[in-house]
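User: My collaborator sent over this chain with a note saying "see what the structure looks like." That's all I know about it. Can you take a look?
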Amino acid sequence: MDMVQDTIFALATAPGKAGVAVVRVSGVAVSDVAAALFGDLPKPRFAALRVLKDGQGLRLDQALVLYFPKKNSFTGEQVLELHLHGSVAVVNSVLRALGDMPALRLAEAGEFTRRALENGCLDLAQVEGLADLIDAETEAQRRQALRVLSGDLGKIADQWRKDLIRAAALIEATIDFADEEVPVDVTPEVTALLSDVTAKLKQEITGVEAAERIRAGFEVAIIGAPNVGKSTLLNALAGRDAAITSEYAGTTRDVIEVRMDLAGLPVTLLDTAGLRETEDHVEGIGIKRAIERAQQADLRVFLVEQGEEPELEVQAQDIVVTAKADTLQDKAGAVSGKTGLGLSGLIEQVTERLAMMAGRSGIATRERHRLAMLRADESLKSAKSVLQLGSDHYDIAAEELRTAIRALDSIVGRIDVENLLDEIFSSFCIGK
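Assistant: Without extra context I'll predict from the sequence alone. Here is the result:
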């Protein structure tokens, strides 16, 4: 049987004890499920209180029931939602009753969302936005995911597509009437359309890196010499003992990571091994890793003793602060992880710099989007170059435009995405 024709069910809320648990059913057999469990379906999108019974007529629960007809549901199919009392025993008894029905099967990971895609309720970019929204831990992640889920990326990709189709149509018309006198030179309009799309593509391509950092999290590395107070500073910023602190140099041998939320931005703080010359093989590995992670990080906080210079080259966005402010007479630009002195100012500096990076983000959020836009951009560059060679080369320009359109179509899943679907939906939980 075709998977899309199966009627599927799953727990849509987190497993375990809760006030309410929601079980979702989607597919052609929804009416049969309702008849077997509680009787007639309620009116579409109106909640109704129903007593659920199993196949032997034994009472399972009293539940709030919602029915969504075909084309008016999340999946585009008939959908039934059972809002149960959220005990493990109640949920399991209802799931067993559904599993005993021959027309039903348990949904696979992400299958409800996959059906929404296949039935045209979501495009592929929106599916990715939904996955990001489910995983969102900070305010910036939530806002970004909602923009993608609302279809903003699909809308701009569709506008680019329309402009390129218009340009291709003008070129094709010139080709079709190559043996006749064409009264209007289409090159200026076509060039203007391509230039406009190219400029917008470049803007979005530039913003993908920042958008990816919002989605995956920024990295901030704390760099300094051994025993300068890096681990103490990390613990102070994290609000807990995440790293071992000691008066002995070289205590930190590996990169220690702490995840936190700074003004709505997801940030991973990295406590790295102290940078110094050493004959200790293990410490040397830690120092090498420290340098590598520091170079990869979005921002580096250099913690230095008063009068000392940073061990690595300082980039424009990096922050240099003096360590052990509690022991200094001149506390300007200094911080103490032990007492918290200067901590709020450091947090403000880090937040300000990361916010500036985040402000450069666009609507496109993934490397897949960036690569598709780069392919489109390259094709448009080729098309513009070919246009300058005259009407004898318009057929080549038209093919380059078709290539660009196909690249943009892959963003929202119109073509060439089948190999991506299993990977994308595998990240979803059962019931979504």
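A starting point for your reply to your collaborator: Residues 242-253 have pLDDT under 50 and may be disordered.
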